[in-house]
């Protein structure tokens, strides 16, 4: 595709996933890292450089044989890159890497640009007096962090109170030799992250906001989108975009922006990664263009079409699970995890070609689905926390509810139709007037539980369908059930004559058959199988009438009446 | 993942795509082919063998260093594989390769197993007398084919009539040296193909039936699913499954089954490929597990979960376009094709790392969408046949129709709501009584055109919604429009009281606002953006009422009436 050669500084799993994209696009790449590093395993170019990204000579060699250089790791020898005299473009720029690499400078930059971060101050020396002074400034607990080279929680320490200072000084004496800074404690409820792409023209694009869950300071799972209100998701994206927009010119490529979501609803930027990021692995399966492809497209000036960061039409949720090496006596668990993953439709396994060592990131698993509940059920199965492979037992797509068990004879016709079309459904009693709280809960939670259509039957005043419709964004189908007076017209009017703003899809009186058929047609919007089945169903109906016509034509009306309409 | 080493005979693009999967699953592989062949480019193992799959010594070397051997090409030296004395498993088995490799033996096997194929007879010698005799047996035109080594139309010749025989003998004298057979002409209207997976336990699974379109005997595009009736698709899958089930034991892996769909509606098997196949490339983007991953899983006995051959939930259509090398003076066209592809969301480019030569398969492009029309529009753009990038101009998802322009004041409210939610829609007049043929066409074609929901407004007898619902599998929302008499109750009853089997989702009289909101909720089943927007919309509605309440509480009822309800 591109006549230009891309040099990648670092050959770990992020480099490997960049190479996977480069391979598909015939993009020429050169990797600088140790021999047989994960990225090199999947590219047989003779040009790769065996060496280190902290070695000036190796970086120089790389710059001499490529047109564009980029990073899969920021812990590089910046000085030697500065002295780069070749014409090689470096994206993101050296100034950006320098700014981000030192977390204190990064924080100060963000503060200067009006971006909310936790208060951060330098720590001049690692002794009791300084730490006490820091604690009196920031309050306890506070965080101590090394300014450079930290990752996966390494280089971060919590200073709980004045008493814990002695302990810290004793346990980690080698912190003395490092540049440190202190950060005010951020009382977060969730950790969020947003991948941002910045193009050569300085346009920024953000991917959906995700939620990262850490165990022992290592990212365990990543939920996309984050399980927070949509407004919070939007605010996080805007903040992340603003953050990346604040970086120096030529900050081209993808960036991970980690955020804290505080108890009081505020968002703070935690830190920036100037490269693809673990929290963006979900994009491989869930988004139009993955973070890795977006990075290569950005640094090569290739097209970034409208909406490329969106989740793929109709994938609504994704959970990414990191695969960490197990303890030496538990290698069987790794194998079981892989097997469970391969047994789960919608789950994709990405291994990095690394030797297994305890807690080492060996790969990741992307689980896509149409609700977070579906993804979570698959995750449970993959982790061996549920023996039930939920892929065979589908969660209900239609919820059938009725105001009273006296409606069941009518509503059971809907159940039969859904069984015929193989639509997973649930059926229960929810009364607007006798169980208002239950109705509220049902309507409120249905969408979160993965329900896609609600069928509600009710007679008389028949408030159930309309009240449920008022509390869910899902389509609600109303079945007017005929009562002992007024022939069902009361229920029909009550169900169909909804005010502007809240619709109920009404069907004929007592016709729950049609309610279910309508539900199947609605589900057909996202599942072509239902459309195909609906076509066959309609053909069968047609055939039945044609057969009756043939008999009537053959037998004449009198005999027909005699035989079939007794 | 697997401790076993897989040997792949052949390192072309099919091998490359197998390696891409193997890389992701940490499956150890060894490739036998020329140095730097496409597959080798993306795997730096030092174990690969530089050599030829027609060379006995090279095949022996391969068998000695791997546990399972498989094929990405069937034109191998079968004799040397037969003499393989190592413990290496070969999937599919040598007997299968031998049977398939000689097309005449393959045909005879299929006939013996009761599988419909074009009549095929040996041609003893390449001379006028034999060809005349063959023509008198099979009729003209008939096909002449080489029994082995044919691909992409090479080795196939049409014998039009007695006169064309001399021409053929003169043009292709070297056919004399080849084993030939003749095949009765199959008057096909379309070429179909089905990928079939056979597991180690001899279970067979088929992927959706596709349609291949050839230009100059080379596959140009592949449409998934095939643009034929669903019944034909099912018949084709069953026939393909039966075909693969008929093969000898240990026929493990994926197989491509090419079929002819004849003018009279019959299906004939054309030929089998004992490996991944060009007609299965669409599975990479459109199916739960791709043909390449399925092949590796099958030959390694890894899980093949229920439904793994299905199209991914909610992807309904895919077009695969082969990228062929252009003439030397038209290399710019290749670049433009790539750029257009990268500019098209839902289109993925797979290049094979091959040098460009005219008509050489350099890669392929998978285009996914929610209707064939959407995919075709994207294809046009990619091929430069349309300057309009349809990704920015979405095809309508909702069709608004009404019986008369007198309904427009009511129905225009629906348009406004759809605009507010950014739903692409179309609006027109279709009268059940005055334009019955137009109504039939509209209802019949709507689904094919990519419409997902129809909103139909009508007054008086109000037949339009129900009649349209009778001729489409899509959900139809009916808006009863109030006429000059009966206050709209006539329309309401006519629309809502549909017979069992054909539902219309009725809303309140004149309330096309709610019809549009209902449509948005239905579309939310497949697009989470609409659900999120619906939630915000409901919050805004709530806020508006709360603000009014606050004013009423503050001003008192008299002033409120005076100020706001004049």
TrEMBL record, chains A, B:
The cross-references to Pfam families, in alphabetical order and at most eight, read: AIRC, ATP-grasp, PurK_C, RS_preATP-grasp-like
**Does the keyword section mention Lyase?**
yes
The EC number(s) given in the record are 4.1.1.21
Catalysed reactions, as listed in the record: 5-amino-1-(5-phospho-D-ribosyl)imidazole-4-carboxylate + H(+) = 5-amino-1-(5-phospho-beta-D-ribosyl)imidazole + CO2
Fetch the Gene3D superfamilies from UniProt.
3.40.50.1970, 3.40.50.20, ATP-grasp fold, A domain (3.30.1490.20), ATP-grasp fold, B domain (3.30.470.20)
Please tell me which top-level EC class this enzyme sits in.
lyase
Q: Pathway, according to UniProt?
A: Purine metabolism; IMP biosynthesis via de novo pathway; 5-amino-1-(5-phospho-D-ribosyl)imidazole-4-carboxylate from 5-amino-1-(5-phospho-D-ribosyl)imidazole (carboxylase route): step 1/1
List each copy of the ATP-grasp domain by range. 107-300
One GO-annotated biological process of the protein: 'de novo' IMP biosynthetic process
Q: Which domain of life is it from?
A: Eukaryota
A single MF term (Gene Ontology)? ATP binding
User: What keywords does the record list, in alphabetical order?
Assistant: ATP-binding, Decarboxylase, Lyase, Nucleotide-binding, Purine biosynthesis
Query: Which InterPro entries does this one have?
Result: Ade2_fungi/plant, ATP-grasp, ATP-grasp_carboxylate-amine, ATP_grasp_subdomain_1, PreATP-grasp_dom_sf, PurE_ClassI, PurE_dom, PurK
Assigned protein family: In the C-terminal section; belongs to the AIR carboxylase family. Class I subfamily.
What name does this protein carry?
Answer: Phosphoribosylaminoimidazole carboxylase
Q: Print the organism lineage.
A: Eukaryota, Fungi, Dikarya, Ascomycota, Saccharomycotina
Quick one: which gene encodes this? TBLA0A02680
């Amino acid at each position: 595709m591109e006549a230009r050669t891309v040099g990648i500084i670092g050959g770990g799993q992020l480099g490997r996933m960049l190479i996977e994209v480069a391979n598909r696009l015939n993009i020429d790449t050169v990797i600088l890292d140790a021999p047989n590093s994960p990225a090199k395993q999947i590219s047989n170019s003779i040009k790769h450089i065996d060496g280190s990204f902290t070695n000036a000579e190796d970086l120089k060699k790389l710059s001499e044989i490529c047109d564009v250089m980029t990073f899969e790791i920021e812990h590089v020898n910046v000085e030697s890159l500065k002295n780069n005299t070749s014409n090689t473009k470096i994206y993101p720029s050296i100034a950006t890497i320098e700014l981000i690499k030192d977390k204190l400078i990064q924080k100060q930059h963000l503060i200067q640009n009006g971006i909310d971060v936790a208060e951060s101050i330098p720590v001049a020396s690692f002794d009791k007096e300084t730490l006490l002074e820091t604690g009196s400034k920031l309050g306890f607990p506070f965080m101590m962090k090394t300014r450079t080279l930290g990752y996966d929680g390494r280089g971060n320490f919590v200073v709980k109170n004045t008493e814990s200072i002695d302990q810290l000084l004793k346990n980690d004496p080698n912190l003395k030799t490092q540049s440190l800074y202190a950060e005010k404690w951020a009382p977060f409820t969730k950790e969020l992250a947003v991948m941002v792409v910045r193009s050569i023209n300085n346009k920024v694009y953000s991917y959906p906001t995700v939620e990262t869950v850490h165990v022992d300071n290592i990212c365990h799972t990543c939920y996309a989108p984050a399980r927070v209100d949509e407004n919070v998701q939007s605010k996080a994206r805007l903040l992340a975009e603003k953050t990346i927009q604040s970086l120096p010119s030529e900050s081209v490529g993808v960036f991970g922006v980690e955020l804290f979501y505080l108890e009081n609803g505020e968002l703070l930027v935690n830190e920036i990664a100037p490269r693809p990021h673990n929290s963006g692995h979900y994009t491989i399966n869930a988004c139009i263009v993955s973070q890795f492809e977006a990075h290569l497209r950005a640094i090569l000036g290739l097209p970034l079409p409208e909406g490329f960061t969106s989740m793929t039409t109709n994938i609504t949720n994704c959970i990414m699970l990191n695969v960490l090496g197990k303890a030496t006596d538990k290698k069987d668990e790794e194998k079981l995890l892989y097997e469970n993953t391969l047994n789960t439709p919608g789950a994709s396994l990405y291994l990095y070609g690394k030797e297994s060592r305890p807690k080492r990131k060996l790969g990741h698993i992307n689980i896509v689905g149409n609700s977070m509940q579906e993804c979570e059920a698959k995750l449970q199965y993959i982790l061996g926390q549920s023996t039930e492979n939920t892929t065979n037992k589908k969660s209900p797509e239609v919820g059938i509810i009725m105001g009273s068990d006296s409606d069941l004879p009518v509503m059971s016709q809907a159940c039969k139709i859904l069984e015929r079309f193989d639509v997973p459904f649930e059926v229960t009693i929810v009364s607007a007037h006798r169980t208002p709280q239950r109705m509220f809960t049902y309507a409120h939670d249905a969408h979160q539980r993965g329900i896609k259509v609600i069928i509600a039957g009710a007679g008389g005043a028949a408030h159930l369908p309309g009240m449920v419709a008022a509390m869910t964004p899902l389509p609600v189908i109303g079945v007017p059930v005929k009562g002992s007076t007024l022939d069902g017209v009361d229920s029909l009017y009550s169900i169909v004559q909804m005010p502007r703003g809240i619709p109920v899809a009404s069907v004929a009186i007592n016709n729950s058959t049609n309610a279910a058929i309508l539900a199947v047609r609605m589900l057909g919007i996202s599942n072509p199988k239902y459309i195909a089945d609906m076509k066959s169903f309609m053909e069968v109906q047609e055939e039945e009438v044609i057969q009756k016509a043939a008999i009537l034509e053959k037998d004449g009306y009198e005999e027909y009446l005699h035989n079939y309409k007794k």
